[in-house]
Specification:
Blueprint lengths: L1 H17 L4 E4 L1 H7 L1 H38 L5 H55 L3 E4 L10 E2 L1 H16 L2
Parallel strand pairs: 1-2, 1-3
Length: about 170
């Protein structure tokens, strides 16, 4: 992997020597935070998370009711009936734990999926602006230590957001 990176650096250096090479930077974190699609996706994600949490709340309530029944009727039930109730409770408790774990896994996966989709949309906007401005390479400013004479495209991308947002609301 390091060898591949070294070769890429030599390739970039040779291209720079061959002609004027322009570098741009963007604050990808700021672009993500201010992207109009981020707020929409967050609302959608929150609604989905709330529904799943409600499902868990319902299952937890059912589990508490079963536990209460076990405590309240413990002295009246036979040993066999008590064992059946305890087994039922244990089974439901395991199912609840599995459901909770599955929901957490599903939500984490969905969040990653939505984030990747949003970043793809943002990167497309950045690429179009870079092509328009004749910029050869765009780097994330957070991950870049130094870029001589780099053009910061962040403000231009944010302006594109506002322009497209105002044209969408005018429809």
């Amino acid at each position: 992997m390091r060898f591949f990176t070294l070769i890429c650096c030599f390739f970039v250096a040779s291209v720079v020597m061959a002609r004027d090479f322009t570098v741009g930077i963007v604050d990808l974190q700021q672009l993500f935070k201010e992207y109009p699609g981020t707020k929409k996706a967050q609302k959608k994600f929150n609604a989905m998370a709330d529904k799943k949490k409600q499902d868990l709340t319902d299952a937890a309530e059912e589990l508490r009711d079963l536990e209460k029944q076990l405590k309240d009727s413990g002295s009246v039930l036979s040993k066999k009936e008590m064992k059946q109730k305890q087994d039922q409770y244990t089974t439901k408790a395991r199912a609840f734990q599995e459901q909770e774990n599955q929901i957490q896994t599903d939500l984490a996966g969905k969040e990653q999926e939505m984030t990747a989709a949003l970043l793809g949309e943002i990167k497309d906007i950045v690429a179009k602006l870079a092509k328009k401005d004749g910029i050869d390479l765009v780097l994330d400013s957070e991950k870049t230590v130094y870029a001589k004479d780099a053009t910061d495209l962040t403000a231009e991308v944010l302006k594109t957001y506002k322009d497209s947002d105002s044209s969408d609301s005018g429809k």
